[in-house]
Design brief:
Elements lengths: L7 E5 L3 H6 L5 H21 L4 E8 L7 H17 L1 H6 L2 E6 L10 H14 L5 E9 L1 H14 L7 H7 L10 E4 L18 E4 L9 H12 L13
Parallel strand pairs: 1-2, 1-5, 2-4, 3-4, 5-6
The structure holds farnesyl diphosphate.
The site of farnesyl diphosphate (FPP) has 18 residues, from helix 1, helix 2 and helix 3.
């Protein structure tokens, strides 16, 4: 099979809390440092010509964390959406938000409005497409997709039809998923989209995940063969 090109990388940004605790800092300090890593990673992805990347920033399950941590993460997100969007637009990034954005749901109307604004502001970006996954759960996304088909009166539900209703409809599927923080699980992230993805588990905590490590993973991946359930070519 041809040398693998990369169309999409999905990131599970884990280990902010442990990174902070190991330094006697608060968990929120870990998330703040995590936001800096996100910036470095985006710059590296642009340099490496990766066209699409997805980031698991806040899961549907994260609402169950202590109130102070949830509020801190939402504030960090608000700051990110106000201070970072112009810089991302300048770099040519296109931002979209993936997850449940139901009005009157768990995300505040001010955050929902900032998301709309960020998408509008960056819609013409061509350097990279970034999906920021917020209030996101893979099972929830699939259920919402199927519900849309049912509401539209579809009698036959095919994988292709479900795919057409996912939050990431029309985008290439991730070729690889990188999870930092040492755990080896998907934690309900992009369950449909990651069906054939290569999985990389890094022991680095997200705030310590470096440009060098990411570049190495991209190089390693480019040397791998992907078979999609078939045999390698020439066999
Ligand atoms: C998991 O680490 C990380 C999160 C729940 C949040 C990820 C958020 C960021 C990287 C912040 C920046 C993002 C934006 C869009 C502003 P954890 O807290 O579960 O770490 P632990 O497993 O060590 O406790």
């Amino acid at each position: 099979m041809a040398k693998a090109g990369i169309n999409h990388i999905a990131f599970i940004m884990d280990g902010n809390g442990r990174w902070a605790q190991a330094r006697g800092l608060s968990r929120l300090d870990g998330h703040k440092e995590g936001a800096n890593t996100l910036r470095t990673v985006v710059e590296t992805l642009i340099e490496q010509n990766v066209p699409v990347a997805s980031f698991y920033a806040f899961s549907s399950e994260n609402w169950g964390r202590p109130k102070a941590e949830v509020e801190g993460l939402m504030l960090l997100l608000k700051n990110y959406l106000t201070s970072e969007v112009d810089k991302l637009a300048e770099k040519g990034a296109k931002l979209t938000f993936v997850g449940d954005r139901t009005k009157g749901g768990k995300l505040s109307s001010s955050i929902l409005a900032l998301m709309d604004k960020a998408e509008e502001k960056t819609k013409d970006g061509t350097a990279i497409h970034l999906n920021i996954c917020i209030n996101y759960g893979g099972q929830d996304e699939i259920a919402r997709a199927v519900q849309k088909l049912v509401d539209a009166g579809e009698g036959v539900i095919t994988p292709k039809a479900i795919e057409s209703q996912l939050d990431t409809a029309g985008q290439p599927m991730p070729d690889l998923c990188i999870r930092t923080g040492g755990e080896q699980r998907l934690s309900n992230f992009m369950l449909w989209q990651l069906s054939y993805a290569e999985l990389f588990f890094s022991k680095s905590y997200w705030p310590a995940f470096s440009k060098e490590e990411l570049t190495q993973i991209i190089q390693d991946f480019s040397g791998r063969q992907r078979r999609f359930g078939k045999l390698p070519e020439n066999q």
